[in-house]
Structure formats: C-alpha cells, structure tokens
Specification:
Strand content: 5-15%
Helix content: 40-55%
Shape: globular
Largest sheet: 7 strands, parallel
CATH topology of the largest domain: Rossmann fold
Number of domains: 2
CATH architecture of the largest domain: 3-Layer(aba) Sandwich
Structural class: alpha/beta
Number of strands: 13
CATH superfamily of the largest domain: Glycogen Phosphorylase B
Oligomer: single chain
Strand order of the largest sheet: 3-2-1-4-5-6-7
Number of helices: 17
Length: about 400
C-alpha cells in the first residue's frame, strides 16, 4: 500500500461542481487500488462540508493581491503563492501531511508553488509528482478576465501559462482529460501525457423520487440545463439561446438545475424580454443527488450550451450516459468524439442552429437506446476513465523501485 497525497483548491466532502466530483472519484480510484489517500485542500471556507484537512485561504491576507492590486477571479492563482510564500501557511500545510507520501498529486496547477518549494528544500524528496490537469488553464482564464474587462488579463494569463509549464516540467506523471489537451501539455513534458478522461457515476432510477418531482416539473417534454455558477456557464447560456426564449413553444419550459440558475434572471441580457423569458424558464436551484437523478431521468432533452474552455466537461459525460436526447455545441463535446455517432446525440452551433434543433428535438419521440449504445455508455463510468491514471502512477512507482534496487 502506497501513500497518496492530493492537493486541491476545493473541498470534496460534499462534491457539487466538476472539479470536486473529479477529486472525489480520484480518491475513490486510488483507494480501490489499495492505496491510502490524504486530500489536503486550500480554499476560502465560505461553504459547508469542510473536511478535516481543509485549510482556509483568508480573505484579508495580502497574498490575495496581484502586484499590489486587488484583481477579481484569480483566487485560485494567488492561493498557490500564499501556500508557498506565507511562512505560517507553509508550515501549517507541511505539518498537516501525514507520514511521508509516495505520491503527491496536484489537481490543476494552482498549488504547484507549494510542491516546488518542497522540492527546493528537500521535503518529501522521493515522492512521485503527478500533475492532474483539468484543462489548459491560461486561455480559459484569459477569456473570463477579458469578459469582465480586467485590464491585467494578458499578464495574468501569461503567469498561469508559465505555472502550467512549470508543473509539466516538475511532474513525473502528467494527466489530461482530453486528447487535445494531451497534445498541448505534451509539448511541455519530458514524458508522454496520460489520458485520464472525465467520467460519471451511474445514478439510479427511483420511481418514488421521480413521482415526487413530476408535479414540480413541466408536463410537456422539457429541455434540461445543469450547471454551476462558473462564468462560462452563464455566458454560454446567452450565446446559445440569445436574449429571448421566445423560440420555445408557450407551453414549454427550459429547466435549469444547479447554482447557475440564480444568475440567469438577473443578468442584463435577460431583462429586455424578462416576462416572456420567465414564462419559459424554470429555475430549480441546487438539489440533492436524488433530486438531480430524478430530474435527469424525467428530462426529454439535455442541453449543453458550452462555448468556451478547454479540457472536457463532466456534464457532457452525464448527458451522454443519460439515454436522453443530447444537444450540445461543438465545444461541449471536446474529449467525447467517440460518442458523437450515437443515436440521439446532436451538435449545433450557438444561436439559431442550436435553437432550431432544440425545437425539433422537443417534438421527437423519447430515445430507446440499443444494446451497443448501452455498452458504449458504460465506458463513461469513472472506474473506466480513471483506470489509466492509477496504472500510470503504479508503473512509475514500480519503475522507481526497480531503479533503486
């Protein structure tokens, strides 16, 4: 049994968004392979469900400043500086590590400054370093900062780019979630990049839960959008659907699950046609796993209004697994090209093509997946998608052990 230390910028006690879900499943995968896992997480503790090894990134620390200025939307970047540069934080995080880890895995590049300092100072010198990339972060952050008019966007993106390159150089094993990301990261690495794609956990079909939700949902076939309040989810919604939901039939409602829903009615792009939009929008908010499963089981079409970002999207994997009609943009299927030929899977460009295809799918009969499609959907489960990660790490540990002998 090996000791695996995982560093992340969020808790996974109650996983909600994609990064938290992936972290939780990574932990389960290592544990299933017989390894002991400790997850050490640094973030602003304003949410519930903190774990015993979750540490607060204080709101009042000067480490949050970027070149002496307060810049929004870069807490992830500055948290790594804090972890490595604040002496009290560095000592506290280092003391929290239980024993001597055989593997140190960093989810996303943000906490690599901490690992780099450990290496410089000879702390945990024999550990295998794993960089678990969720996407190529610099261009995504650049797009978000530009969207919000942040003047330092290009400089910050350049710093993130340098951090990602450092992570690839320092790591013994580099993981990516899509083949396109493998190509980008591979140019910065001294070893092949391992594809450990995003996946999903199967959810049940519980008739009792579905019956409880039927009365709260539209009686007509409805499209479903599931997303967090991540800014690209909000901008993608309006890029795909525009300012008016008037293209939907009067008796149809677009249902929205997750924290993204609270940000849609108040968005300026929703205001011009607000009464009409509200008549065709049903915000369901954040629900528990049973509610999420029930609503997905009852939906007619799952929509993926994703227009930017790298990596691959867990919501796409969930949609493909659902057995429902799936409508997404070309960007939303990044990393899932093998599934594009399945019945019921549709790709449309944002704007009018997407809206017209959605109207068409709302009139289509429900899907009845064939046996080959069901088998292909099974390959989306986490136990399959993360198997290459465990295999690559175990092989590196064995190779290092043989070399020492």
């Amino acid at each position: 049994m090996k000791k695996v230390l995982i560093l992340a910028s969020y808790s996974c006690v109650t996983p909600l968004h994609g990064g938290q879900i992936r972290l939780s499943e990574i932990i389960k995968s290592y544990q299933a392979a017989g390894h002991a896992v400790q997850s050490l997480n640094l973030y602003s503790m304003m949410s519930v469900g903190r774990g015993s090894h979750d540490f607060n990134y204080p709101l009042d620390t000067p480490w949050r400043l970027w070149q002496g200025r307060s810049v929004p939307l870069i807490e992830d970047l500055t948290s790594g500086r804090y972890a490595a540069g604040d002496e009290e934080a560095y000592a506290r995080l280092t003391r929290a590590v239980e024993g001597v880890p055989d593997v140190i895995q960093v989810e996303q590049p943000w906490l690599f400054p901490l690992v780099a300092r450990w290496r410089r100072e000879g702390v945990f010198p024999g550990a295998t370093i794993v960089y678990s990339s969720h996407n190529v972060e610099a261009p995504l952050k650049l797009a978000i900062l530009r969207q919000y008019g942040i003047p330092e966007a290009e400089q910050i993106a350049a710093e993130i780019d340098a951090l990602e390159r450092q992570a690839c150089e320092l790591a013994d094993v580099v993981l990516a979630v899509s083949r396109s990301d493998c190509q980008v990261l591979g140019a910065w690495c001294r070893q092949p990049v391992v594809l450990a794609a995003n996946g999903i956990a199967a959810w049940p079909r519980v008739e009792r839960d579905m019956a409880a939700w039927r009365g709260r949902l539209p009686q007509q076939p409805f499209p479903l959008f599931v997303g967090s309040a991540h800014p690209p989810n909000i901008s993608g919604f309006f890029e795909v659907f525009g300012e008016s939901l008037g293209f939907l039939p009067p008796d149809t409602r677009l249902c929205v699950l997750g924290s993204v829903g609270a940000h849609l009615p108040e968005n300026p792009r929703m205001q011009r046609w607000l009464p009409l939009n509200l008549s065709r929008l049903q915000v369901l908010g954040v629900v528990d796993e049973a509610g999420l499963a029930a609503v997905k089981n009852l939906a007619h079409v799952i929509v993926l209004p994703i227009t930017e970002g790298g990596g691959s999207n867990i919501k796409t994997a969930e949609a493909l697994y659902s057995g429902k009609h799936v409508l997404g943009t070309p960007v939303s299927f990044r990393g899932f090209d093998a599934y594009l030929g399945m019945p019921g899977v549709h790709v449309a460009e944002p704007g009018r093509p997407f809206r017209e295809k959605l109207r068409e799918l709302l009139q289509a009969p429900p899907l009845a997946p064939a046996a080959p499609d069901l088998e292909l959907r099974q390959s989306l489960l986490w136990r399959h998608t993360l198997a290459p990660m465990v295999s690559a790490v175990d092989q590196h540990l064995q190779s290092r052990s043989n070399h020492v002998q």
